[in-house]
Amino acid sequence: MARPALPRPSIAKAPLARGRALARTAGGGVADVLHPLLVVARGLRALATAGRRGWERTPRERRGPALFLGAAGALAVGLAPYGPLLALVGLLAAAGWAGRERSALRNTPTEAEAARLRTLYEALVPHFGATDDPDPLYAYARTWETAFEEYAFADDGRPTHLALRYPAYFADGDPVARWRVERLLAAKCGRGREYRFDWDQEAGRLTLSVQPALPTTLCAQRFVTAPGEAILGFTDPDAVRRTVPVTDLDGRADQHAAPVLWRTGARSTEPHLLALGRPGSGTTTLLRSLLLQALPYADVLVVDGAGSGGYGFLHGRSGVLAVESDPAGALAALEWAAHETERRLVRAHEARRLGQPAPDDIRRPLWLVVDRPAALTHLTSTNARPGPQELLRGPLRHGRPAHISVVIAEQPDGAESLGPYVAAATRARVVLGPASYEQLHRTLGAPPPTSPVPDTPPGRGFARLGDGPVYRLQVPATPDPYDDATSEAQRGAVLALLPGYAAAPSATEAVPSTAPPPTPR
User: For a surface tag, which of 14, 330, 371, 436 has the fewest beta carbons within 10 Å of its beta carbon?
Assistant: First the structure.
């Protein structure tokens, strides 16, 4: 008869489960106790990151004064009674505020906002959807919550911020495909505003944000620039790494603006500029602003092809060789500029051959400013005189070694008559006024950073220097001081920048209006 099996001792699981619960409780208690320290540590890291980014964005010329002010502030806090203790308490309070758990930008939308987001989602289905996708991110049967991550609305109910995801098979590297989506979102979110689109191709994320309008209260003034530098206008603060002190029309001087700098001279990569814009867009204002900035260190020659008379206030001023408004004088001035380019090249070559520095008469920069050269083309169709394009070929080709900068302003309908060489030599581009996406892309060689709007103030547009990025641009107000519509503040600002009248032009400075200039020896 087999012996019955002895009962095995049962393992007591209750103490083990009780120990796990005790450990979990202790861990939660420790987390609750250390939560303030974690928040402060997270805030200190956020403050350090913000400080590092702010230091990187600070221009180099302002880092020294910033360090001095910081050291002076630290010394004052250290010498004050209870200063270090109060500074520590303030730092901990700031770290706790920066490290707090913030609620996401996405909140529960109202019924009207939800309906608008639904409309945006359904409008994007033809662009982001695919019929052969088994689990599409964009489909009419799905809801917008699956694709829209963040959103914000203005008081008028229009979106001001939108972050959405798009499928990986969307051709986000194709500018045409991206432009279609951007145009759709700009139309659905509300026209008349400038939208910025940030495409994160690695994460498949698109962020839309409304850009604030650039200030229009800045007028002509003496900017802090080096010789050979000219400010085309002002752009967004995060687009460039340099700021300059400015004064607005109200007289407030404690301001800084982000300039779009154009460098000219022998070492410039883009010595010539082309500005396009409709009448009233501000191209003449841009040329007047550049002339006032160049007069302290350069000679200028102005050719007003349209004969508008917007440069009459420069007549007889020191450094102004001539201001030609009639067609015959304009062509004669261009012929003189072509011969002057040859003369400077010959003198520079002789100096280099003899091992001597360049003479002083060719080292002073010369600015050739031509407003609407296409209006002069019809004058050469009936005679044998060379046209503006042929006369500008020499200064454009050899302008950099001859210290000559050419600035051309033209309307969009006359840009094609400039010829391919003028377009190839002027790689610094400015487009002012209303313009379509295709026109901006074709003229600047790159898509604009924001969506173009149909209504813009004078002087508003885009600028690009060579192969660099495209900047939003606002040209400082530089009206004709002799115009009756000019305000007294702007008239005084422009007249204050003008040099004195020249006593008598020398023979080398005089530009003949009728007889062609002599050939240089």
Answer: 14
User: 382 among the known binding-site residues?
Assistant: no
Edge-to-edge strand list for the sheet holding 159-165: 148-153, 159-165, 205-210, 195-200
Strands (E), 143-288: 148-153, 159-165, 195-200, 205-210, 229-235, 244-246, 255-263, 273-277
For every residue of 280-309, DSSP letters joined together read TSSHHHHHHHHHHHHTTTSEEEEEETT---
Rg (CA), the chain: 32
Q: What is each CA distance from 521 to 343, 347, 352, 368, 383, in whole angstroms?
A: 7, 9, 17, 22, 27
CB contact set of 459 (below 8 Å; sequence gap of 6+): 216, 233, 281, 282, 285, 286, 432, 473, 474, 475, 476, 477
What is the pLDDT, as a whole number, of residue 380?
Answer: 62
Whether 404 contacts 395, CB under 8 Å: yes
The H or E element containing residue 15 is helix 14-57
How many residues belong to the chain?
521
Structure tokens at 406: 């050419």
Instruction: Yes or no: say if 150 and 199 are a contact pair by the CB < 8 Å rule.
Output: no
Cα 141 to Cα 129: distance, rounded to the nearest angstrom: 12
Q: Is 281 annotated as a binding residue?
A: yes
Locus of tokens 């950099």: 400
- Please indicate if the annotation marks 280 as binding a ligand: yes
- The model's pLDDT over 212-251, given as tens digits with 9 standing for 90+, comes to 989 999 999 999 999 899 999 999 998 998 999 999 887 7
Is the alpha carbon torsion for 10, 11, 15, 18 positive or negative? negative
Output b/e per residue, 284-304; b: 16+ Cβ within 10 A: bbbbbbbbbbbbeebbbbbbb
Q: Are strands 460-465 and 470-474 parallel, antiparallel or unpaired?
A: antiparallel
Query: With contact defined as beta carbons under 8 Å apart, do 201 and 166 qualify?
Result: no
What 464-468 contacts at long range (C-beta under 8 Å, 24+ apart), as own/partner pairs, is 464/428, 464/429, 465/260, 465/262, 465/270, 465/427, 465/428, 466/269, 466/270, 466/427, 466/428
Is 278 labelled as part of a ligand binding site?
yes
State pLDDT tens for residues 444-488. Answer: 999 899 988 888 999 999 999 999 999 999 999 999 999 999 999
307 is known to lie in a ligand binding site: no
Is 450 annotated in a binding site? The answer is no
Burial class (CB in 10 A: 0-12, 13-18, 19+), 464: buried
CA distance linking residue 19 with residue 485, whole number of Å: 87
- Whether the Cβ atoms of residue 462 and residue 201 lie closer than 8 Å to each other: no
